[in-house]
Design brief:
Blueprint lengths: L1 H8 L5 H28 L3 H24 L10 H8 L8 H4 E2 L11 E3 L6 E6 L1 H15 L4 E7 L12 H16 L5 E5 L9 H16 L3 E5 L9 H11 L9 E3 H22 L2 E3 L6 E2 L4 E3 L1 E2 L2 E2 L9 H18 L5
Parallel strand pairs: 1-4, 3-4, 3-5, 5-6, 6-8
Antiparallel strand pairs: 2-4, 7-10, 9-10, 11-12
Length: 338
């Protein structure tokens, strides 16, 4: 009962839901006890009768297995609609293995992945796995304006020097900063990450502020891309499961309320806003692109397509729907440099 409800709902249980499911489970157990177990307990020759019952069920199972075994294998193929949703779970950056620095790895700044012509002026996109999901669609838009992007993405690491985090994260951040210091021709630094993960302590916030001050003093134009809404469910997985069992869905199932979004991100947003204002940075709040005026919620589903790869990372399709707007905001903000 719990497994089926979890499959259909696609998210962790609320307290009231858990209580209700426990009560339903107790009721079902009571009914089964009264209608099946208790009558069997009072029956004469109980052991012989139960043995015969088991044998009967065994023969029934073997019969049904043989009948199903004779069916064509094509009948067991996963329906196309299920496959359609599952494919979004693997919509990663096509150059992920080549370009994203993974756990415990140290990047080589000289071998950073370039998206676009080497003859174009270059911008830098620096972040965690969120940045890696965005890079390809964003670079496609930048290339239209004869601009290339260098990618520095390190999974699970913040795009700044945070001395309280993991050692390999610190080493990678220092390598990227040194690269930016040495390359005066790079003016535009785009930072993107799931920021609530990286500002849990006052010390971390102070280090980020110092880092931004360093970039500004280097003459860099800094653009901070805020985090997308964190969906309560895993959109492609939930939709695939429901399609498999023939259970319908609506956009409300793949969404998060404004209140829930702000509960998780409000403190982070206020801090980033203060940094943006203090250093006159370019703020790009991508959550606005996921707002659905019909449901008054942030949606992870649009025009029959899934905007997320999981509950937090955008799919390549989802990233492509906002890449043009992000590019426009950067170009307009830096119009004098183009």
């Amino acid at each position: 009962l719990f497994a089926f409800y979890r499959l259909v709902l696609g998210k962790n249980f609320e307290v009231i839901e858990t209580v209700i499911l426990v009560l339903i489970s107790i009721f079902i157990a009571l009914v089964l006890f009264l209608l099946i177990e208790k009558p069997l307990q009072v029956r004469k020759h109980n052991k012989i009768w139960i043995s015969r019952l088991y044998v009967m069920f065994l023969f029934l199972f073997l019969f049904l297995f043989q009948a199903n075994h004779s069916r064509e294998i094509d009948e067991y193929k996963i329906p196309s609609e299920v496959n359609k949703f599952l494919k979004y779970r693997y919509e990663n950056n096509p150059r992920l293995k080549e370009c994203r620095t993974n756990y415990m790895q140290i990047l080589d700044s000289k071998k950073a992945c370039l998206y676009g012509s080497s003859n174009f002026p270059k911008a830098v996109l620096w972040g965690d796995s969120m940045a890696d999901q965005l890079i390809t669609p964003l670079a496609n838009e930048f290339n239209k304006y004869k601009y290339s992007i260098l990618e520095f993405s390190v999974a699970g690491c913040p795009p700044y020097i945070n001395k309280s985090t993991k050692d390999y994260c610190i080493k990678n951040s220092k390598a990227v900063l040194n690269f930016l210091i040495k390359n005066n021709s790079i003016k535009h630094v785009i930072l993107h990450a799931y920021w609530p993960h990286y500002f849990n302590q006052t010390q971390e916030k102070n280090m980020f502020a110092d880092f931004i001050k360093t970039l500004v003093n280097l003459g860099k134009e800094v653009h901070i891309i805020y985090m997308p809404p964190n969906m309560i469910v895993d959109p492609p997985l939930l939709l695939a499961r429901r399609a498999l069992i023939g259970y319908g869905f609506s956009r409300l199932d793949i969404s998060i309320s404004k209140q829930d979004y702000e509960t998780e991100t409000l403190l982070t947003t206020k801090f980033l806003d203060s940094i943006v204002k203090k250093y006159n940075l370019n703020k790009i709040n991508i959550s606005e692109y996921f707002w659905d005026p019909k449901t008054l919620k942030y949606s992870g589903f649009n025009n029959g397509k899934v905007l997320y790869r999981d509950n937090i990372h955008l799919s390549q399709y989802g990233a492509s729907t906002i890449a043009g707007s992000i590019t426009d905001k950067i170009l307009k903000y830096n119009k004098k440099n183009f």
